[in-house]
C-alpha cells in the first residue's frame, strides 16, 4: 500500500494525528483479513521537493530531505499502529537511520511478512530522482505483492480533475496504456513502466472512505483498478 504524505497531513499539513489514526484504523481492518501487508509512505506533508527547489535547494538535496520526511511519517504511523491497535510493525529504511529503523533487506522484509508483521518501507528507493510512487512499485515487485493499493484523498482515477470539473468521469478500470495516452497524472512514467513490465495491478482509492481497503483486498469494486490489459 502506498500512502501519500498529504493524507497524513490532514488539512493543515505537518503531522495530523487524527488523520494518521484514521489511516491506522483502516490498516488495522485490513490486517484482520490475514493478508501480508507492507506500506510505503510519502513525505509531501512535511516537504515537497519542488517547493524546496524554487528557493534554491538543489534537486538532490531536496530529494534526500523528502526521504527523511518519509522516515518521520513512518515512525508516526508505526507508533499509532502499535500503541492504539496493538499491531506488530517493522520499519525498513533505504537510507541508514539505524537508531530508529532497520536497513532494507528484501529477505528480512519477507520474513517479517511471514510472521504477520506489517512492514513499513521508508526513505523511498534511497536514491534521488525517484518518487515514492516508484519506490512503492519497486518494493511491491520485490516482495512479490499481488496488488498495490494507492491510498489517496481521491476515490479513483478521473479523466480530468474532479475538484475543478463537475463533469469529470471516474474510471472503474483502465489500462496503463490508456493512462499514458490520456496523460493522466496517476504516477510518474518510471513507476508505470515498472508496473507494465512486471504485470502489477494498482487500485487507486480514497483511504478515508471506511472499508474501502478491505473491500479492495476482498476483490470488490472500489476506486479504480489500473492494469496491463492482458
Descriptive account of the structure:
- With 230 residues, this protein is an alpha/beta fold.
- It has one domain: Acetylglutamate kinase-like (Carbamate kinase).
- The chain is 41% helix and 17% strand.
- The chain contains 9 helices and 11 strands.
- The strands form 2 sheets. It has a 9-stranded mixed beta sheet, sandwiched between helices.
- The mean pLDDT is 93.
Keywords:
single chain; 230 residues; alpha/beta; Carbamate kinase; 9-stranded mixed beta sheet; 9 helices; 11 strands
Assign the CATH class.
Alpha Beta
pLDDT < 50 runs, ≥5 residues: none
Overall spatial form: globular
CATH topology value = Carbamate kinase
- Biggest beta sheet summary: 9 strands, mixed
Which structural class matches the secondary elements?
alpha/beta
Q: What is the count of β-strands?
A: 11
Mean pLDDT score: 93
